[in-house]
Design brief:
single chain, mainly alpha, 2 domains, about 70% helix
């Protein structure tokens, strides 16, 4: 075809003819090659390489942050349970022994707090709070809360509009 490069062939619009000729030559020479494929020489610009390196660095930092988050969540969760256990023991020690049911009507805040903390379910409830809020495996519900608040605001605004009409 007397072209000097594939670029020339492509620019002259003869690329399909070139492919056809190459395939015919491959068959004639008995090389057992059925088709000729284009090849590309991909050269990355230095800026692209820098961006890739930054991205890789960020991904490593992200993994590190996730590991730190998991570790901190574990430490905080454990400490909260320890604190709850200590509060429960302290509350049980402050309560005066009572026969029968406690009268909650005449209790001051401090006594109500001690009664609440001395109950068996105090530690279990604390664990539930940890699992809901702190545990790293817990689904993030912040968007649900925002949606709920938006819905409440819309309803309120609609009621106000209805009143003002």
């Amino acid at each position: 075809m007397e072209f000097k490069s594939k670029q020339e062939i492509y620019l002259c619009g003869k690329y399909k003819e070139f492919i056809k000729n190459v395939c015919e030559q491959l068959q004639k020479q008995g090389l057992n090659i059925l088709y000729y494929y284009r090849s590309y020489d991909i050269i990355f610009h230095p800026d692209v390489i820098k961006e890739r390196d930054k991205l890789n660095e960020f991904l490593l930092e992200y993994e590190e942050r996730q590991n730190v988050k998991i570790t901190l969540n574990g430490i905080v969760s454990k400490q909260i349970i320890i604190n709850a256990d200590n509060r429960q023991k302290e509350a049980k020690g402050k309560l005066k022994p009572v026969f029968g049911k406690r009268n909650t009507m005449n209790q001051d805040y401090e006594e109500q707090k001690n009664v609440r903390r001395s109950q068996l379910k105090y530690i279990t409830d604390t664990s539930k709070i940890i699992d809901t809020i702190i545990n790293y495996k817990t689904k993030d519900i912040s968007s649900n809360i925002l949606d709920y608040e938006r819905m409440k605001r819309k309803r309120f605004n609609k009621k106000m509009d209805d009143i003002l009409k």
